[in-house]
Amino acid sequence: xxxxxxxxxxxxxxxxxxxxxxxxxxxxxxxxxxxxxxxxxxxxxxxxxxxxxxxxxxxxxxxxxxxxxxxxxxxxxxxxxxxxxxxxxxxxxxxxxxxxxxxxxxxxxxxxxxxxxxxxxxxxxxxxxxxxxxxxxxxxxxxxxxxxxxxxxxxxxxxxxxxxxxxxxxxxxxxxxxxxxxxxxxxxxxxxxxx
Length: 195
Fold this sequence. Notes:
Blueprint: H1 2-17, E1 27-32, E2 39-42, E3 58-61, H2 76-85, E4 91-95, H3 98-104, E5 126-127, H4 135-145, E6 150-153, E7 157-162, H5 165-194
Parallel strand pairs: 5-6
Antiparallel strand pairs: 1-2, 1-4, 2-3, 4-7, 6-7
């Protein structure tokens, strides 16, 4: 268990250092499969991902019952809905990265670009806004996850999933990069109109 918790902390530190989250925003989790049922290791609520220790990581069962001290992220139900819908998902990274979240707050769609798996749809799927931490948001994400590997939460942020934490983290980094590219492209195209 210690190795799994250390991995959650390591990825949490990385996504903070890369600027994909700031302050006390964002959360990540890892599914730990067991013979008596799965356990989810998730970052705590109201604590920066830059400053976590082993005691901060909260373990919950698939019904959301806490198995350790501490309070899990307010988005625990969203994580659980994804795990319940997708047995192939073992890790979730939820960020508020600047450029991708900018798209989430705009009317512009975020295009899928080459570089992270096969492109099956032209745009990243968007989930309509519901209050962060709400059951409504958790349900909407659960209904939208389907075969997707990333969702853009309108007026909120980004959810990336993977078979493991490294895969989910790399996807979160990639999504932010494609959002930067598209933002720059949109700005250059707008400037071109003025010349």
